[in-house]
Amino acid sequence: MLQNCSPRLQIEIISIGWADKTDYFLMPIYLQYYFWLVFISLGCLLLERLKPWRPKQEVIRKGFVQDLFWLVFNQQYVGWMLALGVVKLVSLFDDSLVGIGLPAISEFQLIADWPLYWQFLLAFVLKDFIEWNVHRLLHTVPWMWEFHKLHHSIEDMDWLGAFRSHWGEHVIHRMVSFIPLVILGTNSVALFVIAVAGTLIQEISHANLRQDWGVFRYVINSPRFHSWHHDVKMYGKGGQNFAVNLAIWDWLFGTAYWPEDAEQPKRFGFSGMKRYPENLIGRLLHPFIKFKK
After folding, report:
1. Widest CA span of the chain, in angstroms?
2. 177 with 85: CB under 8 angstroms?
3. How far apart are CA 141 and CA 292, in angstroms?
């Protein structure tokens, strides 16, 4: 169905959530994603109850209700608005290029004819490397850190904490990482699998689980590896363990930290967190107030 559409129309269909409506579970693609979101979240919650890393940590912990808001707001509203924003941005850029006699970037479709598994592999690795670099910038560029502070205000790590993030941070991540995939002409199915795989890895890496993936610890992000990223202490410039999905970037570029004499940090958060607002409105406005000052 989708392959018969023009490249730009494919992007628009994906963004409004009706791609491959008749080809998979007979439901719109955004509902397909929500199905997997609920399935993964319930699975992580169950694992946390069966074998928690920190047994004394409560399910309904501090900030639980607010984190439910971030989950719904960021996934339902911000996510799709940004997808439409990317479409508009690419469309404007295409028109500008065509206006001066150059080919439109959405027509390049560099990997559109590749087998689906190769498209997934390249797009997943490329997107993750871009996001790893953006994540480092979120920690080292002062104004970007003000947006990212919200995520690091987590004091009790669990699967739901993965969704605590400011919408401004999502703008930065999505705009930078999604446009290259559009230029490459990545198939909608590959994009969907990337979204589901990313949700799975990120929820697990924040979960109250002791998993480290054994011999794959140097490749895939894990709860034990990512817990040190949320340590109040910093062990490198801006922090450590910036992995989003793949831990290999931290090991390759010297930003990995995994001590042998301690299993997990003594405390999660960031320095000066007592001055950070706890209410929802304060957290939404915080980056802009700090930037104005």
Report:
1. 64
2. no
3. 16
Give pLDDT tens digits for 215-265. 999 999 999 999 999 999 999 999 999 999 999 999 999 999 999 999 999
Q: Which residues of 137-161 are buried (b: 16+ CB within 10 A; e: fewer)?
A: ebbeeeebbbbbbbbbbbebbbbbb
Structure tokens at 69: 């808001």
Closest Cα partner for 169 from 200, 204, 130, 143? 143
Between 167-184 and 79-99, two packed helices, what is the crossing angle to 10 degrees? 50
Q: What tokens appear for 183 in the block?
A: 């230029």
- Considering only residues 233 and 24, tell me which one the structure prediction assigns the higher pLDDT: 233
Q: What is the pLDDT of residues 42-96, one digit of tens each?
A: 999 999 999 999 999 999 999 999 999 999 988 777 776 776 676 677 778 778 8
Quick one: tokens of 143? Answer: 């104004």
Strand partners of residue 268? 231
- Model pLDDT for residues 178-200, shown as the tens digit of each residue: 888 888 888 888 988 999 999 99
Identify the band that residue 24 occupies on the pLDDT scale cut at 50, 70 and 90: very low
- The residue ranges of every structural domain in the chain are 2-292
CA 226 – CA 242 distance, rounded (Å):
8
Residues 6+ apart with CB under 8 A from 273: 152, 153, 232
- Which run of H or E residues covers position 86? helix 79-99
Write out the two tokens for 4: 């018969």
Q: Please state, in angstroms and rounded to a whole number, the distance separating the CA atoms of residues 223 and 229.
A: 10
Element (H, E) at 33: helix 29-50
